Amino acid sequence: MGSFVPNTKEEREQMLREAGYKSFDDMFSVIPEEVRLKKPLDLPSGLSEMEALKVMEDLAAENKVYREIFRGAGSYDHYIPAIVKSVTSKEEFLTAYTPYQAEISQGILQSIFEFQTMVCELTGMDVANASHYDGATAAAESIPMCRDRKHKTAYVSATTDPKVLEVMGTYCFGSNTKLVTVGEADGLTDMEDLKKLLEEDPEAACFYVESPNYYGNLEDVEAMAEIVHAQGAKLVLGIDPIAQAVIKTPRELGADIAVGDGQPLGMPIAFGGPYVGIMATTTDMMRKLPGRIVGETKDHDGNRAYVLTLQAREQHIRREKASSNICSNQDLCALTASVYMAAMGPDGMKEVAEQTMAKAHFLRDELVKAGLTQKNCKGEFFNEFVTDCPMGAEALMAALDEKGILGGLPLDGDTILWCATEVNSRSAMEEVADTVQSLMKGKEA
Amino acid sequence: MELIFEIGSKGRHLSLLPQCDVPKVEVPEKFRRTQAPHLPELSENEISRHYTKLAGRTHGVNDGFYPLGSCTMKYNPKVNEEAAALRGFNRIHPLQDPSTVKGALKVMKMAEDALCEITGMDAFTMQPSAGAHGEFTGLLLIKAYHTERGDEARTKIIVPDSAHGTNPASAAMCGYQVVSIPSGPDGCVDLDALRAAVGPDTAGLMLTNPNTVGLFDKNILDITKIVHEAGGLCYYDGANLNAVMGIVRPGDMGFDCIHSNLHKTFSTPHGGGGPGAGPVGCKKFLAKYLPGLCIEETADGKGFEMVKAPQSMGSVKAFNGNFLVVVRALTYILMMGREGIPEASSNAVLNANYMRVKLSDDFKMAYDTTCMHEFVMDLAPLVKETGVNALDVAKGMLDYGIHPPTMYFPLIVHEALMVEPTETEPKEVLDQCIDVLHEIYDMAHTDPDYLHGAPHDTVIGRPDEVEAARHPIVRYVWE
Amino acid sequence: MALFFSKTHEWLLEGDDKTVTIGITDFAQEELGQLVFVNLPEAGDQITAGEAFADVESVKAVSDIMSPVSGTILEINEELLDAPEMINDAPYDAWFVKVGDITYHEDLLTEDEYNAFVEEEKA
Question: Are A335 and A93 in contact (CB under 8 A)?
C-alpha cells in the first residue's frame, strides 16, 4: 500500500507511549463504540506510485483528445505559454495556503496584488478579487452586491450562457431572490423588454448581461447602462478576458461590476476546471466585493508590504451578516492568469484577441461559403457565432470527429455554436468547411 | 521588492504566436478599446526570475512545518501533479460527448464511490469547488428537501458558537436564519441547549465532528437524533474528516449530507488558497436534488452517461467541478487504499496527541483530554503572566521557519492557537516545534518585548493593517 | 443642548430643535481599538431603539452600534466614511447620525451616571 506517514512502527509506538496510550485503539477510545466502523473500508488495497500512475494514465487514455477544437461555450482553448506552467509548478505557490501570516506570505500576497491590478487594467475597474470559483459563480455572487432593502429583484439577459443562468438561478433559489429573464431578439438582448421590465419594477437591483454573449455577439452595453441606471439599478457585465484586450472596458461601457471566467488566461480546458472567476468593481462598491482582497501597506520599518485587507467584510468576522461565505481565493489560477498576461504583455494580449477574432470570422466565412447560414446575429461577434446545420448536428459532429476535430456545440433545433481561437489553423478551418460542403452535397443528392 | 509592473521596459516581449494566417478583422469603432491595458513588458527570463523571487517570499508545506489548525496542511504527493498534468485530462473539453470522455467520467465515478465509502454516504457531486461552496450546496439540498415537502416553516439552521464563520455565512446565503447555540464547558454541543433550540422551524444543524476544538463529540448519535426528531436534517462539515477516516463515518453518525475538502483530507495542494474542491455527499433520499450532472452507468453497463438528477436544485458551477483537483484526490486515494486511509487518520491523531502532551507542561490546553487530529492551546494564562499573547507567539514562530497554528479560532477560546500537525510530519519535526514553543514560552517570561516585536528575521516585519484597511491601496497605479 | 449616555456606550446630544445627534463614547472607541471603517444608514431610514443602526470595523472585528432612540435619520456624518480615525481621535466630535421625529427614548444616563457605570464595567 501507499503511505506518506514517515514515522516507523517503532517510532509510532514510542510516541503512543510518551503520549500516554497503550495503543491506537486506546487513543481512539474517546470515540464511543457504537459509532465506530466495525469493518475495514470497502476500498481496494493501496497501490504503489507506479501502479497508481498507470491507472491514471490508462484513464486519461480513454479520453479523446482532439487535434482541433471548435467548441467554446464557456471553455476556450488558447495557447498556454511554457512559462505559465513553469511558474505555477513552483512548490511554494502550490503548497502554501491562504496568506494569513503576511510576513512569510509576501510572495502570494504580492502575486494577488499584481493579479488584482491586471484585472483592473483589463476591465478599467478600481478593485478586483481573486476568490471566485468560476465566471458563473462570480456572476451569481454579484447579485447580493447590488441587493439591499430597496432593491430586491435581479434581471438577467436571455442571451446569457445557460450554464451561467442556471447557477444564478440556483443561488437565487438559496437567497430567495427573484430572478427575471429579459428577452432576446436576433441573438441580442431585447432593449425594449429590458426597458419595460425595469420601468415597471421600482425594486430592480441589477441587470446582468454578457458581451460577447452566449452566441458570441457584442451587446450594446452603453445603451443598457443608461436604461439600468435610470432605474437606480446596477449593471453587471460578463466579459471574456481575451476580448477585453480589444473591446471597450466595462468601465467605459458604464458597468458597475465586471465578472467573467479567467480560464482563457492560461488555464487548460481540463474538462471544466479548475478555472477562476474574475470580479472587479468601482471604489464605490469596494466594500461590497466578496472574497479576499490584498492591500498594500508598510511594515514598521517602512518596507512595502502586502496584507489581506478589508477583512471585516468577510465571513470569519461578520459570520451570518457577511454578504458571501467565500473564504478561498483561487490563487493558483489567479497566478496562472497573471503569468499569462505578463508573458503576453499588452501587445501579445491584443494579438491573441485579434487573431482569435480573425479566425472566428474566417471560419464563419468558410462555413457560409460551404452552405451554412449564420443565425442569431444582427450585429458584431467576437470569437463565437451560430449557424444552422441542415445535415443534422449529429451527422456533422460525427464526420468531424472522425477527422480528430471537435466541432461546434450543437444547440437546440439543429443550430451550432462555433468557436475559433488563435490556436486553430487555417487548414483545419478549411477542412471543417470541406466536411460541411461534402455533407451538404450528400444531402442534396 | 519590485512589482512586476516596475521591471522590464517598453517593447520587451516573448515569441509566442505565429503570424496570423487569415485576414485580420477590425473591431468596429463603437466597440473598440481605445487605450491598451497597462501590462508588464518583459522577457521570459525576467518573468521567471520575478516569480522565483516571489516564491522565495512564500512559505509552503514544502518549505517547512505548517501546523495550521483546521486546514490539514499535509504533504502533497508529487504523483498527484503528474496525474493532473496528463494530456488526456488537460486537453478535453467539458462539453465533449460523454462517449469521448469515458476516462474522465470514470475518474469522477471512482472518486464518488470512494468518498461514499469513506463517509458513509450514497451519492456525491463533484461540482462544489471549495468547502464553503460545499456548505452552500449541502444546505441547498436541505432547502430543496423541505421545499418539496411544502415544509416552508423550516427557516432556521442551528450552528454551534464554535463553528467556522463559513457555516453561518453559508446558512445566510441560503436564506436561513442562524441560531447559534452555546457549547458546553467541555467544548461539545450542549444537549439541553440543542433541545431548546430545535422545533418546527428547524431546517437543520451544521456540525463538524471532531469539532472545531479538536474533540470527538461523544454525544453525536443523540445530537443527530434530536435534530431528526424535530424534523430537521444534519449537515456534516467535512473540514475535520482527516481525523476519522476508516474509524468512524459521518453517515453512521446520523448525518444526511456532507462536504469533503479534497485539498485538505485528500492531499491535493492548497495552491495558496485555491483551487480546492468541496464535493458534497448525501444519503439516498437527498440525491434527487443534487446539482450539476450526475454520472451514471449506461444501460449496457459499458460506459457512463451524465444525467440531471430528477429534482436537481440546478447548478452551483458552470461545468463539472474542479476536475483536475478530483484527479489528484483520486490518485491519492488509489495509493492509500483501504489500509492507508485509516493509517493516515490514526497517525494524524497520534501526532496531535503527542504534541499536545509534550506541550501541556508549559501551555494550558483549552480542553485537557485526548484530542483528535488537532488541539487548541489557550494562551490566556500566558497573557496574564507576561503580556505575550497568541499573536506574539505566532509571530515568534515565524523566525524559526514554522508556519504558526491557526490564531484566535475557535472564537470560544479567546487566546487560541490551534495546532494540526497532520500525519505526514516525522517525529523530529514535531519535536523541533515542541522545543521552539518551549523556547518562546521562556522568552515570554524573560524578554516579552522581543516577542512583541517579532518576527525579526522575515522579509518584512509586522505590516500596518490598520493603515491598509483605512486607506486601501488595492491596485498599482501608473503615473 | 444636553448630553446623555446609553449603557451600550453611545452618546446622545439633544438639540434645541427636538433632534438628537448620536455618536460613541470615548470608552467605546478605546475598547473597539483603531477603527478602519464605519457603515452608516441613509438619511430617511427609520431606526428603532435597542436595534443596531450602524456598525464599525476594526481590522479583525465588526461591532454593531445600537440606537438609544426610535426615529428618522435626518443626516449622516459622511466625513466618517473617509476618515473613520476621527472616531478614535475625537469621539465626541465624530457624530454618526442626526435623528428627528423621535417617537421613543430609552432611559438614558447623565454624564456622572455613565462614568460610574463605566467604572463598574471596568471592575
Answer: yes
DSSP 8-state class, residue B365 = E
CB-neighbour burial class of residue A379 (10 A; exposed 0-12, middle 13-18, buried 19+): middle
Nearest to A15 among B252, B325, B354 (CB): B354
Q: For position A329, what pLDDT does the model report?
A: 87
Range of the domain at C69: 2-122
* CB pair distance less than 8 Å for C60 and A311: yes
CA atoms of A246 and A240, how far apart (whole Å): 11
| pLDDT higher than threshold 80 for residue A315 | no
Q: C61 and A312: CB-CB below 8 Å?
A: yes
Q: Class for domain B79-335, per CATH? A: alpha beta
Per the CB < 8 Å rule, is A137 touching B133?
Answer: yes
* H/E element, B159: strand B156-160
Query: Running DSSP on this structure, what letter comes out for residue A415?
Result: E
Which residues does chain B have within 8 Å of residue C57's beta carbon, measured at their own beta carbons?
A: 469
Task: Give the span between the Cα atoms of B67 and B406, in whole angstroms.
Answer: 8
Query: How many structural domains is chain C composed of?
Result: 1
Nearest to A118 by CA among A214, A219, A249: A249
Q: What integer pLDDT is reported at residue C82 of this predicted model?
A: 87
Q: What is the ipTM of this complex?
A: 0.97
Residues A322 and A360 in one domain: no
**In sequence order, what are the residues at sequence separation of 6 or more whose Cβ sits closer than 8 angstroms to the Cβ of residue C107?**
none
Interface of A with B in 389-408 (CB under 8 A): 397, 401, 406
Residues A237 and A91 in one domain: yes
In a domain, A389, yes or no: yes
Residue A387's domain is classified under what CATH number?
3.90.1150.10
* Predicted pLDDT of residue C120: 87
Domain enclosing residue A419, as ranges: 68-76+346-444
Distance from CA of B445 to the nearest CA of A (A): 24
Find how far residue A331's CA is from the centre of its chain.
13
Cβ-contact A186, A219 below 8 angstroms: no
List, in sequence order, the alpha helices (H) in A78-150. 82-88, 91-95, 106-123, 135-146
Among all residues of chain A, which has the CA nearest to that of C60? A312
A310 and A427 in a single domain? The answer is: no
Which residues does chain B have within 8 Å of residue C32's beta carbon, measured at their own beta carbons?
A: none
Reading phi first (left if > 0) and then psi (alpha if -120 to 50, else beta), residue B8 is in left
pLDDT tens for A31-73 read 999 999 999 999 999 999 999 999 999 999 999 999 999 999 9
> C59 and B408 in contact by Cβ < 8 A?
no
* CATH fold for domain B342-465: Aspartate Aminotransferase, domain 1 (3.90.1150)
Number of domains forming the structure of chain A: 2
Which of A340, A360, A391 is the last residue before a domain boundary?
Answer: A340
In angstroms, what separates the C-alpha of A391 from chain B's closest C-alpha?
A: 19
Query: A415, B468, B358, A133: which is closest to C60 by C-alpha?
Result: B468
With a pLDDT cut of 70, the percent of chain C lying above it is: 99
Return the partners of chain B (3 or more C-beta pairs < 8 Å): A, C
Residue A445 is predicted with a pLDDT of 58
Boundary-marking domain end, from A291, A316, A340: A340
List, in order, residues 6 or more apart from C50 with CB less than 8 Å away: C66, C67, C106
Q: What is the mean pLDDT of residues A341-355?
A: 98
| Chain A from 13 to 72: CB within 8 A of any C CB | none
Q: Which positions of chain B have pLDDT values less than 70?
A: none
C-alpha B466: how far from chain center: 27
Q: Is the pTM of this model over 0.90?
A: yes
The whole-angstrom distance between B385's CA and the closest CA on chain A is 25
Do A355 and A136 meet the contact criterion of CB atoms below 8 Å apart?
no
Q: Identify whether residues A257 and A186 lie together within a single domain.
A: yes
Q: What cell numbers appear for A105 in the block?
A: 506570505
Whether residue A131 is contained in a domain is answered as: yes
